[in-house]
Amino acid sequence: MIEEDNNNEDFLSEDDIEIIEVSDNPDLMYEHYRYVADKGQGPLRVDKFLTSRIEGTSRNRLQQAAEANCILVNGNPVKSNYKVRPLDIVTLVLKWPRRELEIIPENIPLNIVYEDDDLMVINKSPGMVVHPGHGNYTGTLVNAIAYYLNFDNIKDLEDPRLGLVHRIDKDTSGLLLVAKTPDAKTNLSRQFFRKETKRLYNALVWGNPESDSGTIEGNIGRDPKNRMLMKVFPEGEQGKTAITHYRVLERFGYVTLIECKLDTGRTHQIRVHMKHIGHTIFNDERYGGNEILRGTRFTKYNQFVSNCFDICPRQALHAKSLGFIHPRTSEEIYIDSEIPDDMSKVIEKWRNYTASRDQFQ
């Protein structure tokens, strides 16, 4: 759920990594970076070689790029452990052309639920991309923030004035924290890094959990068979540590409304962890929640679920509350939000269904 790059382009952000596909034909890729190793270059892993030259990225992102055949040496794809030699030509290629990122302020309405001189909290609508990236250069939350704060064009995504401290998925709704000063951004970012913030999510999931509460622990990393998906690696040999606590709020038989508390903030964490324990988030297309995973075979029931999908055409996940320490006053701030209409309408439909289930069978 965090940020981006240097060089005024959107190289390998978390969102971009999700759409990198393995390429068997580098000729169909676009060159983004090119470096020629010195004559005196000693043997050095290519991921380390590039990390020292491309500001704002990490070895992990470069290793993922190598796995997708996006790192070439002398025109041929190499793995991240390739040792760079004198005069090697090292290039990084992606499936889209380079584009200079220019954050253009756009007059897009924002639902600001809290604001002072140091920060603001925005309740993001579902369907809105948070940060510019491949395929979404305008119409994002950052473009809207730039307009609201009366900024000029900003090319550096890490400009402290645009202090987006964290982010959520495009089709997840809910609260996001924005720092308005460099000091506030530094302080709030530190709170997230140290896991001192309090975040609660509401989700509608398939199935009826056996327990009223539980904790899911399992490393989360990118699925080696499908890079658009994240996956739990129970053995802990891959991915990063992830811990999700959940408790049941309301049961509807075939689906359940739950609350989730995060100890960590991995990409798609709630979505992946809930699928891992057999309770995929309702209408989460990426992880299979847009299929009827529980219930009957009756036509009326199938139509009922289809209507629910139409009412809430995205994963039923909402970042409901956010707590943090104010960076200047040290006051504890806690903000809660209402579940958006699409989710609340679907929840109400399931509530009514449970109360009168016989009419659907």
Write the layout of secondary structure elements.
Elements: H1 14-19, E1 30-36, E2 44-45, H2 46-51, H3 59-67, E3 71-73, E4 76-77, E5 83-84, E6 89-94, E7 112-115, E8 119-124, H4 141-148, E9 163-164, E10 173-179, H5 182-193, E11 198-206, E12 213-217, E13 219-222, E14 230-233, E15 243-251, E16 255-262, H6 269-276, H7 299-311, E17 317-325, E18 332-336, H8 341-355
Parallel strand pairs: 10-17
Antiparallel strand pairs: 1-6, 2-5, 3-4, 3-6, 7-8, 8-10, 9-10, 11-16, 11-17, 12-15, 13-14, 15-16, 17-18
Compact overview of the structure:
With 361 residues, the protein is an alpha+beta fold.
Question: How would you characterize the overall build of this protein?
Answer:
The protein has 361 residues and is α+β, with helices and mostly antiparallel strands. The chain folds into three domains: 73 residues, Roll (Structural Genomics Hypothetical 15.5 Kd Protein In mrcA-pckA Intergenic Region, Chain A), CATH 3.10.290.10; 82 residues, Pseudouridine synthase (2-Layer Sandwich); 149 residues, Pseudouridine synthase (2-Layer Sandwich), CATH 3.30.2350.10. Helix content is 21%, strand content 26%. The protein is built from eight helices and 18 strands. Strands 7, 8, 9, 10, 11, 12, 15, 16, 17 and 18 form a ten-stranded mixed sheet that branches. Strands 1-6-3-4 form a four-stranded antiparallel sheet. The radius of gyration is 22 Å and the shape is globular. The N terminus is likely disordered.
CATH architecture of the largest domain: 2-Layer Sandwich
CATH homologous superfamily designation of the largest domain: Pseudouridine synthase
The class by helix and strand makeup works out as alpha+beta
In total, the number of strands is 18
Number of helices: 8
- Total domains: 3
| Relative helix content | 10-25%
Unreliable residue stretches? 1-27, 153-158
Q: What is the CATH first-level class name of the largest domain?
A: Alpha Beta
Strand and helix order? HEEHHEEEEEEHEEHEEEEEEHHEEH
CATH domain topology of the largest domain: Pseudouridine synthase
Q: Biggest sheet: strands, sense, closure? A: 10 strands, mixed
The gyration radius over C-alpha positions equals 22 Å
Give the overall pLDDT as a whole number: 84
What percentage of the residues does DSSP assign to strands (E)? 25-35%
Question: Termini distance?
Answer: 42 Å
